[in-house]
Amino acid sequence: MKFSDEFRDKDLIRDIARRLQQLGGKPATIMEVCGTHTMAAARFGLKELLPPLVKLVSGPGCPVCVTAQEDLDGFLALGKEPGIVLASFGDMLRVPGTGTSLEKERARGAAVKVVYAPLDAVDLARQEKEKEVVFFGVGFETTMPATAVALQVAAADKVDNFSVFCVHKTMPGALKALLSAGEVKVSGLLCPGHVTTIIGAASYDFIPRDFGIPCAVTGFEPLDLLLGVESILRQLSEGRAGVENVYTRAVPAQPNPRAQALLAEVFAPADAVWRGLGVIPGSGVKIREKYRDFDAQSRFAALLAQVPPPPPTACCCGDILRGVMAPKECPLFAQACSPSQPLGPCMVSSEGACAAAYRYERD
Ligand code: SF4
């Protein structure tokens, strides 16, 4: 029995239907910001379970997917240099760069190593003293503290052949840009639980205040997601908008002070380029001057300056990440593009909207 069948008659589903009735039958478009939410919603059949007037759309919360093509191309270019070892989380391996990928480069003989944590890359540098080990620092506030620790350890232990290619991003800035653009009309946002353990639920206060849209911070179990949907519909039906935390077992209202202190010590706010969203001011971080020797973009600046900008692509991941297109609306979906022949990161990533739709929502 599927989760959606098991829960069809439960109180929470009735509550959601009742809230929708209180809205006078108006449709509600709810963005699940996080890629893990997207995958969970597809996996557990929540779209099928929810009333048809509730539409879930994906947002810019898959860290692999939002990594800009130019950043990936820069990292790939470093791997062509003799003596450089590229260290990356495994989910970046099959993401297509311009004409290649980390996986393809590895097959051609480039030194590409999969690591499970940034500190593994520091250990790799200790072992490969004759090589330069460059770690691809990808992800949101959730993964940033681990990169910060790796930089601190490398600096303290003088692991001088280690550096970080930092493309970390911060979530609130992207949400602000997305909502300000007004391309997609959303009734509410399901905000990512794991990011919020670091930044605190209050970080989203600007959304109801400036955009009049309710938010719910949710976890990743199907019930967490349904609680989030209920929270948003309840706020709408009561004519109010706030930030409700329905993931209180993990998420505090305020930022995690230790994580924030760690991040502030290692990183400074910076502009970041997002796939599909372009450059968003203040939506990323750069490595502080104190750790400059471990900053790959600084260490290899001359080499990276020669990497050409990526050409246009037929992949519509940018539209999908902005919520203006559903995966199945991409003409390449399940045709030229599939998990075995991915043309974009949304089909590669385990949190990608196209991968979720391909795996769980194909007719
Ligand atoms: Fe890109 Fe493939 Fe998704 Fe289309 S189906 S948006 S080509 S990843």
Number of separate strands = 11
Count the DSSP helices. 19
**Helical proportion?**
40-55%
Q: Ligands bound here?
A: iron/sulfur cluster
Uncertain residue ranges:
none
Mean pLDDT: 94
Q: What's the arrangement of strands in the largest beta sheet? A: 2-1-7-8-9
Feature tags:
11 strands, 363 residues, five-stranded parallel β-sheet, 18% strand, alpha/beta, globular, 19 helices, four-stranded parallel β-sheet, binds iron/sulfur cluster
If you had to describe this structure to a student in words, what would you say it looks like?
The protein has 363 residues and is α/β, with parallel strands linked by helices. Helices cover 41% and strands 18% of the residues. It contains 19 helices and eleven strands. It has helices at residues 3-6, 11-22, 35-43, 46-49, 63-66, 69-79, 102-107, 118-127, 144-156, 171-181, 193-199, 206-211, 222-237, 257-266, 296-299, 301-304, 317-321, 345-348, 353-360, and strands at residues 28-34, 54-61, 84-88, 112-114, 132-137, 162-166, 188-192, 215-218, 243-245, 267-274, 278-287. The strands form three sheets. A five-stranded parallel beta sheet has the order 2-1-7-8-9. A four-stranded parallel beta sheet has the order 4-3-5-6, sandwiched between helices. A hairpin with a 3-residue loop joins strand 10 and strand 11 (278-287). The protein is globular.
Sequence-ordered SSE layout with sheet pairings:
Blueprint: H1 3-6, H2 11-22, E1 28-34, H3 35-43, H4 46-49, E2 54-61, H5 63-66, H6 69-79, E3 84-88, H7 102-107, E4 112-114, H8 118-127, E5 132-137, H9 144-156, E6 162-166, H10 171-181, E7 188-192, H11 193-199, H12 206-211, E8 215-218, H13 222-237, E9 243-245, H14 257-266, E10 267-274, E11 278-287, H15 296-299, H16 301-304, H17 317-321, H18 345-348, H19 353-360
Parallel strand pairs: 1-2, 1-7, 3-4, 3-5, 5-6, 7-8, 8-9
Antiparallel strand pairs: 10-11
Helix pairs in contact: 2-13, 3-19, 8-9, 9-14
The protein binds iron/sulfur cluster (SF4).
The site of iron/sulfur cluster has 14 residues, from helix 17 and helix 18.
